[in-house]
Predict the structure of Thiamine-monophosphate kinase.
Amino acid sequence: MLRDEFDFITKIKPKIAHQPSLKKGIGDDAAVFEGNSMFDELICMDTMVEGVHFTKETMAPFMIGYKALAVNISDIAAMGGVPTYYLVSIAIPNDWDEKELKEIYEGMKSLGDKYSVDLIGGDTVSSKQGLIITVTVCGKIQKESSLYRSNASPGDFVFLIGEVGGSAAGLELLLKHGLHYPYSNQEKQLIEAHQYPIPQIEAGKLLASSKQRISLNDISDGLASEANEIAEASNVTLYIDYDKIPRNSFIETYSEEKQKQWILFGGEDYQLIGTIPKAFYSEINQTFNQNGIQFTIIGEVSSGDAEVYLINNHAKQILPKKGFNHFNKGE
């Protein structure tokens, strides 16, 4: 049985590219290839599987559609791009009816309308067990503006856009009680964070427009996992101060142990983590303040092995590349 999706992806990554227009293939949030004289093209894909990413007890059909598109638009945000088109491949089992399927597409349309993204095609097939929905999103970015994970350098600041921990907390509530439980207002906020993530498109665009050397990654599998991806891609060491990580305010009534698990390893917050040159901090901080976007410095980059250290209570420890992994249920 396959044990580690990240190791598998590394093994199947092509050693050479046949198309000279390809600028970035496997190994970032989206692939990049040359478009016209002004823009590069972006393309990314994500799949959601019933029983793995959702059930009918955790998400209604409209929510499934919304989130299936949102997670892909978040990948475009992590490249600093603008989404333009999307395609949908859906495998349908017998226990899903036409009304539910229409609601899935209505969920996608609601988010697509918000970002002016057009549905242009896809495929519809049957499934023997479980609904499977795969969304491909295309986007564009001005040339030489892509925010690769490999852009981090010693001396940079590590930053976070937004707050983390809310989605994992919301999922835990849904798995325990289901969709129709009489949740408190606080619990509803956590559930919404899981069901309706908001892609950080504006933040990505602001970072890309700066033309600075910035690395960026969206938080899908967990802050620890995404930070390690930047460290590995850039061959640097990241130091993250746990106390500086902005957490969703609605998780603060839970135990510190639960909060730490959700913040570092929960995932599906779809916020952005990245690095910037220290000299650029004041300028970008002012830009984000003016646009009402939460921007927080949470650590620094140093030379060394491709590792991430967590600083907590005046002690440092390795922050493992642990989080959501489709083929390792022990983590």
The longest helix spans residues 61-78. The chain has two domains: 5-142, 149-318. The radius of gyration is 19 Å.
